[in-house]
Amino acid sequence: MGFSGWRVLREGLSGNRGWTPQWRDPEPKSEYDIVIIGGGGHGLSTAYYLAKEHGLTNVAVLEKGYLGGGNVGRNTTIVRANYFLPGNSEFYSHSLKLWEGLEEDLNYNVMHSQRGLINLFHSDGQRDAFARRGNAMINQGDDAILLDREGVRKHLPYLDFDNLRFPVYGGLLHPRGGTARHDAVAWGYARGADSRGVDLIQNCEVTGIDIENGRVTGVQTTRGPIRAKKVGMVVAGRSSQVAAMAGMRLPIESHVLQAFVTEGLKPVIDHVVSFGMGHFYISQSDKGGLVFGGDLDFYASYAARGNLPMVEHVMEAGMALMPMIGRARVLRSWGGIMDMTPDGSPIIDKTGIDGLYLNCGWCYGGFKAVPGSGFSFAHLIARDEHHAPAARYRLDRFRDGIGLMDEEGTGAQHNLH
Amino acid sequence: MRIRCPICGDRDLREFTYKGDAVALNRPGPEAAAQAWDDYLHLRRNPAGATRELWYHGGGCGAWIVVTRDTVTHEILGAVLAEEAEA
Amino acid sequence: MRIAGKGLIDRDTPVHFRFDGVAHQGFAGDTLASALLAQGVRLMGRSFKYHRPRGVLTAGSEEPNALVTVGQGAHADPNVRATVQEIYDGLEAHPQNAWPSLRYDLLSLNDLAAPFLSAGFYYKTFMWPRAFWEKLYEPVIRRAAGLGALSGQPDPDAYEKAYAFCDLLVIGAGPAGLMAALTAAEAGADVILCDEDTRSGGRLLAEDEEVDGQPGHAWAQALTDRLRAMPNVRVMRRTTVTGVYDQGTYGALERVGQHLPHRASLPRACFWRIVAKRAVLASGAIERPVAFPNNDRPGIMTAGAVRAYLNRWGVAPGRRVVVFGNNDDAHRTARDLVAAGVHVAALVDSRHEAQASDAYPVHAGAVLCNTQGRLGLESVTIRTAKGEERIAADTLAMSGGWNPSLHLTCHMNGRPVWRDDIAAFVPKPDMVPGLIPAGACHGAFSTHACLEEGRAAALRALSELGMTAKDVPLAEAEDAPVSLRPLWQVLGKGRAWLDFQNDVTAKDVALAAQENFCSVEHMKRYTTQGMAPDQGKNSNVAALAVLADATGRSIPETGTTTFRPPYTPVAIAAMGAGAEGKGFAPERKTTSHAATVERGAPMIEAGLWYRPSYFPDPGESHWRQSCDREVRMVRESVGICDVSTLGKIDVQGPDAGRFLDLVYTNMMSTVKPGRVRYGLMLREDGHVMDDGTAARLSEGQYLITTTTAAAGQVMAHLDFVAQGLRPDLDVRLASVTEQWAQFAVAGPQSRALLDGLLDAPLDPEAWPFMACGPVKVMGIAARLFRISFSGEHAYEIAVPARYGDSLFRLLVARAEALGGGPYGMEALNVLRIEKGFITHAEIHGRTTAFDIGMDRMVSAKKDCIGKVMADRPGLKGPEREQLVGLRPVGESKEMTAGAHLFEPGTEPVRVNAQGYVTSVGFSPTLGTMLALGFLRNGRARHGERVKLKDHLRQVETLCEVCDPVFFDPDGGRLRG
To answer: Which residues contact C601 (CB under 8 A, 6 or more apart)?
Structure first.
């Protein structure tokens, strides 16, 4: 039965005894048409769209821990489509459109809130680069507004306009940018996939990928072998390990990105604010915590935790930009494992092995991609052809140099993003 | 995190910058095949465990160092100067 | 109320403070909570969701209920735990999250709607109509959520950061920590002893017990005094170790001025980075409440907190106390209360074997099953074998056992193990390398066991450090065994709170399980259990137990969530201390800074440097006037510009030339001494990294320049190539950027300017374009380079930085005498655009030598960094966007950098985009706007027309594509 305000009232009146499991915990079958490795946001959305868009429901999602336990459960919840290079531009634009209909589609309130995102700039050169970006966003059909210093002040009066080390020249406002409740996205997709017949199998770690004559035939798991005609790998944070089971080496290094949340506070920050000069961004959750983060720690790590130099750098950037947050207390810090590709953009592609598909390399921007990534990956798996908005996310682009998407301009080789 | 620079001794992470897998030392020749260059510059073993990697002591002596470190525990297992490291 | 003669407060020093607008008096040594309790104030806060009235639950930093705002205006400090805040004269504390008042809070209506606000209800509703989420529902939710409020003003107080190093860090100064510190200190180790409390002793401060025949607190004080007197010990009170990081690095927050009225001279807090070879964790344990219906009213406290208020602060939290527990601490509490003359109405012990007492009625095998009272406890209902019975009481002390404070041991992802005998999680060995848990945090609950474990931990640390321990005797102390029967939840009508702060009840956890949020992480995230400011310190284990029960698993099978830093919340201002305003990043100033500012030049940021934007002349009111004049000045006479910010790297050694051949695309080994060559550097991925010049000063010495922005990156890169790729080459590198002040002298009069300034005039034959060499200025050795970024006959002259200020003033004076003067970044930019010279606007990281028309600079005769990858199919060819010049040819003359290029007549949408504009400027020389940009296959399209479109600024301009060199294309002026 669907979720609605009426149902909340009705169940409330009868002691909330009528709520049922939001997804089943089925035993794995011995064979599926499609096995998706990874029950994070991207894996769950892939399964959902396989069922919904392609009618493929003999599908299992295999998750080694709990559903939504990867980066979808440990990010800073920002949703945006402010990319400017061909490939990224159309992909994130498509993803944002899916976001805008997600509650209705999933019958799940993921609290997507288009609070507006402002990227600040601090020199003429940065303004020019953001103008190029904003124009590309409008070329793509998305929205962007170039704010001057006074325009920024109207939106963000609490910034340090008088004394900031890198004065605010202006900002690029992306009105449709915003945030969502990250866990709810995973749960909404899980519930939607499950209700369409997909088996979501938790505590089931894939330990091997079976390949015969260049074609995938199934997977080995901690809960026994499972045969499959097609297998999709969607395991950000473990991509290299899982791909190695198929004999592949990926253009990925795993890095740690830390994030922080403060104690709950009354509303004080309405937008998502990004301070590129300080590698700092911040928003405030509906619960009242300031949610913020910075740059990678910049060393390979699978520890999902970081060290003090970046912690302090992030706090310093916050104090520099908006000293009014000084008395907010950091409640919790954590780290996520980032699949970093050489050019900072993701991969959605076939592999050299028939029936084996790859979705990885989301760097530190995977959350906003969850709907688009699942939609495009489902398309690729179901039809064996690239979905147009994700057609440039090729695995071989590094070898050939064709269609590199280096949004930051820091380079198309490792450890520069 | 603290790294033992072979020249300066035990120093804080903030004095160092990172360049990733020490495979970067094994630069192929200009005639090497495209695959060799792809391997060199892009494809990574990316282990969850001990790895050899390059760090630059830019906030100290300017040495490039090959550090052996566990990417799961962050334990540092050794450090030698890049110019003395075996490629 | 106070109890005469009890407590560690200084009754001779009264302290006056205000809470909720009412004046109160306490004593030195009081916390806000103890002082308010002494005054009979029980209601101190409201809960997060249901706005339930709440009072003090604990006596420590884990307090979930009594959160207040201290101070006003910009000094307002939200979410302060009343249990930790020491009172001082003039302290003002305010209730928060209540409107209109703490007693009458409108949002307590939420409590009535509780059936509809169960766990995760918001995921199921507020979806229709769609627009209402952002317009109505969410704003209402946001306003209701949150606890205290930020002032919205910059934090006016000072904070500091500091480093410390030691052999042994001892975390916690209770019996275990004190013993560890003493053992290590006696062995000569450098010891830091931290405790979050204001004085050492830990639980000894809260208990009525003797150590070595003296009161426990006195023993602790004496030992602390002894430690403090030792030169190798630093005792840090009010210091909480907040996080564990790699290789023995610990974060710690010292509250420096937060407990004092006059703190202008003191920072509020100091954030410490402590590097310790070993550490002992002696952080104690936290008593856990029991979940029974309505267990959250003001007056309901943990039993340990009741004893703390009684014994440490001499406060009886009420007149009629009921004690409820599942262990012997309940009896200890009742005994202490009776001894202090407080009436114990009942002791309710869930264990059937509970011992009777003469001093108070004991109900064995009974439980609390409800409570009553609107703004504070009035009575409790107990359930015994005989049925339910109501007992009047204003205070309930509850004890569900203790949870070791093992949080720091989990900061590196370690998971604790379950111990059935104490029904608690304890740390496994070596969860953090070098961190040894001891005492209550390790599950050792008697004072004797704590002392013993503290000593043993220190001995282990000393032995690992190779230090010899001395014999340190153990003090005499109680050694009672733990006697406890697990009791997590009492079923009954009504809600039983687990997470007091986030209003998570046992029913919420059960509902989560009912909806298959059975993983502990799912339950946490669905119910928000453990996500409040106490991070589940009071509630996580009980919630786990309730979940285990609901899912038919054991507690260890159910698992735990992860504890992460910080242990207690830390102000952003403390960890970010010093970064406000200009403190965020270094300010680099050139030697001409003072002279430039004297001339009224606005300074702009160039990376970390400051450079002048332009030099306004009297009468000029717009930057364009100054810029145009400065450009004309350089084109017509001579201009001076400080170019010291460019990176300068001294490259020396017999193999310097071969080395530079590898890092530059072009050949540098063939440059003759006394000559300069322009060079391009690629990253190994084949894109342009930087450009600059290489001047060969002598056979074995080059001086190369980098752009201002890339100086650091290039230095690291060259060091890598030298040390990592070609250690066989005999070459040495040194950055000399700051050692030399360097000035461009540009324009037709540049030689005239230098002749007469230099000790010998320049011989034109010896100084052709791209020459370099030593010269002297007033006897000072200087370097001269005949190079040009303006397209004019120009030089750059470099002197040791200490002469920079004088030389700049001299150069400017001479230039002015010749009709020239200084010029700034705006003019420099226009001059280089006129000449089609690139900056990082063009080499923005995604462009190749091919794209900027310099592929012929990639020497075919040798290898270089990036050469192979630049040859990849995707990095060259007509599909690439190539550098072009653009000039307006239609009605609109406006050009903007960041605009995109389209073929005229096509829709300005992504699929039609042909390129973009990188740099624009008005050329006074040519009398028109000019632009540089990248256009698909642009070099083949000179003469074509394209549409420049800037949606953001509503610009649309028809442009002609042309060569990027707009002015003096054959370079006659440069060479002449």
So the answer is: C612, C613, C614, C615, C616, C822, C824
**Which strand (E) or helix (H) includes residue C140?**
helix C138-144
Flag if A414 and B74 touch (Cβ within 8 Å).
Answer: no
Q: How far is B84 from chain A (nearest CA, A)?
A: 22
Which uninterrupted H or E stretch holds A149?
helix A149-155
Q: In this structure, what are the phi and psi dihedrals at residue C181, rounded to the nearest 5 degrees?
A: -65, -45
Q: pTM to 2 decimals?
A: 0.97
- For the residues of A22-35, what is the DSSP string, one character each? SS--PPPPSEEEEE
pLDDT of residue C92: 97
Distance from CA of B35 to the nearest CA of A (A): 7
Beta strands C191-194 and C159-171: pairing type?
parallel
Q: B12 CB near a chain A CB, below 8 Å?
A: yes
Q: Which CATH class is domain B2-84?
A: alpha beta
Which stretches of chain B sit within 8 Å of chain C by CB?
A: 1-2, 12-13, 17, 19, 24-25, 27-30, 32, 34, 37, 41, 54, 56, 58, 62-64, 73-76, 81-84
Q: Which two tokens stand for residue C116?
A: 């509809």
Q: What is the pLDDT of residue C271?
A: 98
**Cα A201 from Cα A187, distance rounded (Å):** 14
Residue count of chain B: 87
Number of H helices, E strands in chain A: 11, 18
The domain segmentation of chain B, as residue ranges, is 2-84
The predicted model gives B57-78 an average pLDDT of: 97
**A–C CB contacts, 8 A cutoff, strictly below:** 365
pLDDT digits (tens, 9 = 90+) for A260-309: 999 999 999 999 999 999 999 999 999 999 999 999 999 999 999 999 99
Q: What is the structure's pLDDT at C317? A: 94
Tokens of C355: 């011992």
Domains of chain C and CATH, by start: 1-153 (3.10.20.440), 159-286+404-464 (3.50.50.60), 291-399 (3.50.50.60), 494-553 (1.10.10.1100), 588-645+739-832 (3.30.1360.120), 647-735 (3.30.70.1400), 877-976 (2.40.30.110)
Share of chain B above pLDDT 70, in %: 99
Give residue for tokens 């894109």.
Answer: C687
Return the residue of C nearest to A263 by Cα.
Answer: C533
Share of chain A above pLDDT 90, in %: 99
Across the interface, which of B12, B25, B32 has its CB nearest the CB of C725? Answer: B25
User: What are the b/e assignments for C11-30, b being 16+ CB within 10 Å?
Assistant: eeeebebebbeeebebbebb
ipTM greater than cut 0.95: yes
Residue C890 makes CB contacts below 8 A (sequence gap 6+) with: C957, C958, C959
Residue found by looking up tokens 């342009």 in the block: C688
Give residues with Cβ within 8 angstroms of C344, minimum separation 6: C321, C322, C323, C334, C337, C338, C359, C360
Looking at residue C262, its pLDDT comes to: 67
Is the CB of B2 less than 8 angstroms away from the CB of C246? yes
Closest residue to B27, CB basis, from C249, C433, C725: C725
**Rounded average pLDDT per 10-residue block, chain C, 976 residues:** 94 98 97 98 96 97 98 95 97 95 93 94 92 92 93 94 98 98 98 98 97 97 98 98 98 95 84 98 98 98 98 97 97 97 98 95 98 97 96 98 98 96 96 98 98 98 97 95 94 96 97 97 97 96 97 94 96 97 97 98 96 97 97 98 98 98 98 98 98 98 97 98 98 98 98 96 96 97 98 98 98 98 98 97 97 96 97 95 98 98 98 98 98 98 98 98 97 93
C-alpha distance from residue C166 to each of C36, C163, C247 (Å): 40, 10, 13
Question: Exposed (0-12), middle (13-18) or buried (19+): which is B14, by Cβ within 10 Å?
Answer: middle
